[in-house]
Amino acid sequence: MKTHLHGLLLYCRPGFERECAQEIADRCGEAGHLVEVSAEPNSGWVEAQAEGGTLWALTRILRWQDLCFARQLLFSGRTVEGMAPGDRVTPLVEAARELCDGYADFLVETPDTDDAKSLSSMIKKLEPHLSQALEEAGAFSDAPDAPRLHILFTATDRATVALSWPGRRSEWLNGIPRLRMPREAPSRSTLKLAEAFHTLLSEDEQERLLKPGMSAVDLGAAPGGWTWQLVSRHISVTAVDNGRMNPELLESGLVVHKREDGFRFVPRKPVDWLVCDMVEQPRRVAALAARWLTQGLCRHAVFNLKLPMKRRYDELQLCTDLIAEAMGDRKYVLRCRQLYHDREEVTCYLGDPGKAGGGGRKRKR
Q: Under the GO molecular function aspect, what terms does this record hold (predicted)?
């Protein structure tokens, strides 16, 4: 397949460009490839330049699923600038045809910033004309491994063409999951756990590991956003928090409320899941999750790490190193991601690779 790659293109939360840039540079370096990374503060995207051979090698190595701060991982082609309002389609189709022989489909996107969102009405008008022009140019392919074409608009007259491959990208537009807030849920934090399950677990893992009748402990549960998400899956929950829980959750018959310190609580018998969204030092929470796994108190854990304003990437590295040390010789899977519904935090999954399946960053020390 002919491709003319210019670099890497990653979407991220505005304000976290530096962390996204640090991470992709480290991941490429670990794979033996050097890239030159550039990022504009609060732009919502990061670029990395490298030689063509390096970029083609990275298409076989890098996966969005293994990154924390990137919402999307793309391989970019040419940036089209100075497009005339009357004809944006022609130069974009030309750039797309230069990039690759054929695409399975295409998306037109913008960064997650207020300025970029103002382009949405223009994009809606452009999409049908672009689809027709790509079809007439023979730009689509039925090949099972055909990449997707992404067109990232950063201004009315500026857009970058890029591509992604199945199994190595986020499937959501702009890398942002579209989740509805359940009316019955007691807080919007329920969306964090819902997104965590969707992004940190594969569909097969969700089916196998989130079965009705399972058990869970929710540390820092009040008022019950994460507990509600588990109860909606018919999982029994011990909700640990000195605060008040939502009365309807307590009436469900699936929730037991323990007014105790989350760091001192120990279940009477092992549970399937530990979930934790306590506002606490990230290294303390990371150590807590690792302790529950190593002591056999749970089989799987999802927890939030509230990162400090400065040295956020470094703090995450310290937390993952702490978990590695605590796990010792035990094999495990650790997956970390800054979710769309997170803010100054990242959400992590920690579990047994035999139970969780493939993917993530497996470690054995």
A: S-adenosylmethionine-dependent methyltransferase activity
